[in-house]
Design brief:
By secondary structure, the chain is of the alpha+beta class. It folds into three domains: 5-55, Uridine Diphospho-n-acetylenolpyruvylglucosamine Reductase, domain 2 (2-Layer Sandwich), CATH 3.30.43; 63-172, Uridine Diphospho-n-acetylenolpyruvylglucosamine Reductase, domain 3; 182-296, Enolase-like, domain 1. Helix content is 36%, strand content 26%. The chain has a five-stranded antiparallel sheet. The chain has a four-stranded antiparallel sheet with strand order 9-10-11-12, sandwiched between helices. It is globular. The N and C termini lie far apart (63 Å). It comes from Salisediminibacterium halotolerans. This is Carbon-monoxide dehydrogenase medium subunit. InterPro entries: CO_DH_flav_C (IPR005107), CO_DH_flav_C_dom_sf (IPR036683), Diverse_Substr_Oxidored (IPR051312), FAD-bd_PCMH (IPR016166), FAD-bd_PCMH-like_sf (IPR036318), FAD-bd_PCMH_sub2 (IPR016169), Mopterin_DH_FAD-bd (IPR002346). GO terms for molecular function: FAD binding; oxidoreductase activity.
């Protein structure tokens, strides 16, 4: 079924009002890459009305760095910014390199040049979700009257209201450290059924500090997600890692903690058991690389 009409509002207020009036018979569209795959596979029903956000491309695209008393130094990404533009952006590479890597691994170049970070995020299966969770991003939605800020942690639990329009994604810069031996690390790892243009089986992201002198981890944040599952922060695993010295025993404990904390659904291609083991292995391999290169054999 083709859509009966593509609406082209000229203001966010008009777009929100259309969505409110049309209800479940409509959806917002920008790049449309995720919607197209969902419709073609039958995973999501086509709707008779599409609300195009193309009129806001200039307003809601790009990366800007700013600083204010409440948020401190942070970067703001417009929700319609295409994924390809985030791969080599200097501000992204400085503040959230795992987001750059996540975007680089999404699908094929043609998709990255068309799909937006907003669409990837709101699919709730996108590869950017674990990276944004680790970066402790904040999402700004327009609710028809006001702009509302929603912490990424709350979004992962509650999602968004159906009519609200995602306008910006804000990412804080990591605070400066006073420990001269500390180094910031981050990682993004993905496993798919093939190398490219396929939904991920599991994705993991991490960020933290590592003391090269003592071999201690701290301020570590971890998140895991993938197609067909709700992304989560691994808060219990983080609590055990932070303050802990690198060792083989630590890696073993982390492996078991991830397997207990992350319980994804299985699907027709991979079981829950497989996904849990894959996530645990991806995380401890990243921690191993940091520990073994910076401390164990120094």
């Amino acid at each position: 079924m083709m859509p009966e009409k593509v609406w082209k509002p000229t203001s966010l207020e008009e777009a929100w009002t259309l969505s409110s009036e049309l209800g479940s018979d409509c959806c917002f569209v920008s790049g449309g890459t995720w919607l197209r795959t969902q419709w073609e596979s039958g995973a999501q029903a086509r709707v008779p009305h599409l609300i195009s956000l193309d009129a806001f491309t200039e307003m809601l695209s790009g990366v800007n760095v700013s600083e204010d008393p409440l948020k401190g130094k942070h970067l703001t990404i417009g929700s319609l910014t295409v994924l390809a533009d985030l791969i080599h952006d200097a501000a992204i590479l400085e503040a959230a390199p795992m987001l750059s890597e996540a975007c680089r691994q999404i699908a094929a170049p043609s998709i990255r040049n068309q799909g937006s970070i907003g669409g990837n995020l709101l699919s709730f299966s996108g590869d950017t979700l674990p990276a944004l969770a680790v970066a402790e991003a904040e999402l700004t939605f327009f609710n028809g009257r006001d702009y509302v800020d929603v912490p990424m942690a709350d979004f992962l639990v509650n999602g968004k209201k159906s009519d609200d329009i995602l306008v910006f994604v804000a990412i804080p810069y990591p605070p400066p450290t006073t420990n001269e031996n500390a180094e910031t690390f981050s990682f993004f790892r993905k496993e798919g059924r093939r190398e490219a243009f396929i939904p991920s089986v599991v994705t993991v992201a991490g960020e933290g500090q590592y003391d090269r002198e003592t071999g201690r981890f701290y301020d570590v944040r971890l998140a895991v997600g993938g197609a067909g599952m709700d992304p989560i922060r691994l808060l219990n695993t983080e609590a055990v890692i932070n303050g802990t010295f690198y060792s083989q025993e630590m890696l073993y404990d982390v492996y078991n903690l991830v397997r207990r904390e992350f319980q994804p659904p299985g699907d027709g291609f991979r079981s829950s058991f497989y996904k849990t083991k894959a996530a645990a292995n991806l995380i401890i391999s990243a921690l191993y690389r940091k520990g073994v290169t910076s401390y164990e054999f120094k």
